Amino acid sequence: MTSKIIKRKRSLRIKRKLRIRSRIHGDSITPRLSIFRSNRYFYAQAIDDVNGVTLASVDGKKMGLKNNKDDVKKIASSLADSLKKAKIEKVIFDRNGYLYHGVVASFADSLRENGISL
């Protein structure tokens, strides 16, 4: 892709991110679950926006898992375990400007299967 197309895609994602972020907040009872996906890895963290604290996080790079549907399911189950240890059953899903399909949808579905309601 040319640099012009890449810049356009990046700016559209940032617009979506800001639009989503203006509407949702997390607190200690229902934290905001923010995701980030690069071309290689997938990251997620549960954030209490009131206190500015990360309650639980998972790093696909440290786990040695890539950014694909199968590995993202393992990442989601790991995050669900750490959320349950922190006694969190419900989160607000922040897709961070990414479209809800593919890897992002697989991650959300796997969280629901592991007992975390979005």
Short key terms for the protein model shown above:
4 helices, 4 strands, Nucleotidyltransferase, domain 5, 118 residues, four-stranded mixed beta sheet, alpha+beta
Topology:
Blueprint: H1 3-21, E1 32-37, E2 42-48, E3 53-59, H2 60-63, H3 69-85, E4 92-94, H4 103-113
Parallel strand pairs: 1-4
Antiparallel strand pairs: 1-2, 2-3
Family: Belongs to the universal ribosomal protein uL18 family.
Keywords: Ribonucleoprotein, Ribosomal protein, RNA-binding, rRNA-binding
Protein name: Large ribosomal subunit protein uL18
Architecture overview:
This is one of the proteins that bind and probably mediate the attachment of the 5S RNA into the large ribosomal subunit, where it forms part of the central protuberance. The chain is an alpha+beta fold and 118 residues long. It has one domain (3-113): Nucleotidyltransferase, domain 5 (2-Layer Sandwich), CATH 3.30.420. It has four helices and four strands, in the order H-E-E-E-H-H-E-H. The protein has helices at 3-21, 60-63, 69-85, 103-113, and strands spanning 32-37, 42-48, 53-59, 92-94. Strands 3-2-1-4 form a four-stranded mixed β-sheet. Helix 3 (69-85) packs across helix 4 (103-113). The longest helix has 19 residues, at 3-21. The termini are far apart. The mean pLDDT is 94.
Major β-sheet annotation: 4 strands, mixed
Q: Topology as H/E string?
A: HEEEHHEH
User: Which CATH C-level class is it?
Assistant: Alpha Beta
CATH architecture: 2-Layer Sandwich
Arrangement of strands in the largest sheet: 3-2-1-4
Question: What portion of residues belong to β-strands?
Answer: 15-25%
